[in-house]
Amino acid sequence: MHNVFRAALAVCLALVFAIPATADDRDDLKKRLDEFLYGASRGDADVHESFWAEELVYTSSSGTRTDKSSIVEGMRAAPPSDPDNPAVVYTAEDVDIRVYDDMAVVAFRLVGTAQDESGVANEYFNTGTFQKREGRWKAVAWQATRIPAAD
Question: How far, in Å, CA of 69 to CA of 37, rounded?
Answer without folding.
Answer: 18
